Request: fold
Amino acid sequence: MIKMMKIARIVYLLIGILFTHKGTTAKYTPDWDSIDSRPLPDWYDKAKFGIFLHWGVFSVPSFHNEWFWPQWKSRHPAPDIVNFMKHNYRPDFTYADFAADFTAEFFNPDEWADIFQASGAGYVVLTSKHGEGFPNWPSSHSFNWNAKAVGPNRDLVGDLANAIRNKTDLKFGTYYCISEWLHPLYMKDKANNFTTQSFVLSKALPELYELVNRYKPEILWADLADGQGPASYYKSKEFLAWLYNDSPVKDSVVTNDRWCHECFCKHGGYKTCRDKWNPGKLQKYKWEDCMSVDKHSWGYRRNAPLDSYLDINQIISTFASTISCGGNMLMNIGPTKEGTIIPIFEERLREFGSWLKINGEGVYGSVPWSHQNDFITKNVWYTKQKTENDGTMVYAIMLTWPDDSVLVLGAPIPSQSTQVIMLGYEGTVNWIAGPGGQGMNITLQNIPWNKLPSPWAWMFKLTNIAN
Reply:
């Protein structure tokens, strides 16, 4: 073991020499002030919407959630998991035994790519390795515990990356958990209060370098299995300096803020802060709401009831508040162990895509307006676009139809040349100014129900607004 660790340290040092010092001065140095100063590549903010895919060995039991293993083997195991295993598997069954049934025999990456393209997403983030430690590619540092060695017997990351790049205009990204729940070396490092780095030097860092160099992901979504460990343990600053200076995606890659326990909402790339974080107000930094269509799990669950899934109105509502406040939305679905996307997930993606096809003008490339949420009609959120010819356009996203078919807006100050257009509707939309010229009353009674562009949420373009 000591010899192996010495070799791992030498390999790490060689990687650092090879990729961080090429005889030129590094633009970004391994400290947070420098790393946090890197501008976010423009494509990410313009995209607004991405798809998250939680897929791994946990997709085999597909029960409880993706934390099945630690919640089964913890000091206080989840009773429903204990009963599930007792009634369905032999007594000596281990978590590793699930891997053989992670078959992915119906995985067709071209079909997935078609669904993702139809969703209107700008990027997709695939789980390359979750907290269980199972890489979805033939990792050189996980010899008998990866998707090529057991289970699918194929390179899941590479296959999807190729399909996304060949068949869509989406950016391809990978989620990578930089710690592992039950890896012996990680558990030993944690017991040593992270003063040793056996796991990082022999597993996490070598895999990260391999992942980036081999697949060139343009989103590198880091996570911590248990939320523990400082940046000095993970060598996060050193790795990010290499990623931004010398990696094959140095100019286009974006990352998040989960590179250490003190990084959340502070350091890295865009901020996620915590799962399903949606502040509801404008932030000073770029942020992302990672949320899941299944309200109780990120991985697929075979026994999930219908009311566990967000409906399309809930998804659009979350999205409207997110982009109005300057965020992106990363919507998660969990594929099955066979490699399929179940119909309800596909339906949500296609429904959302049909809505974006109508209303994308007020979404892609938009920026926050002076008001995010209307102060009279609370279920209205705003975005803004600025064009060379037309000046500033304000877009109002109306989530529910008003009872009297009059949309009362308090935030906009109209001018004499203001026009109101419902995106996707060819008819005229009438309006009058509010009291004292503040606000607008938009009349909707004359719009036939069968001429509405969408059954869910409607977007109005307001031209020549004075504020």
Q: What stands out?
A: Residues 1-24 have pLDDT under 50 and may be disordered.
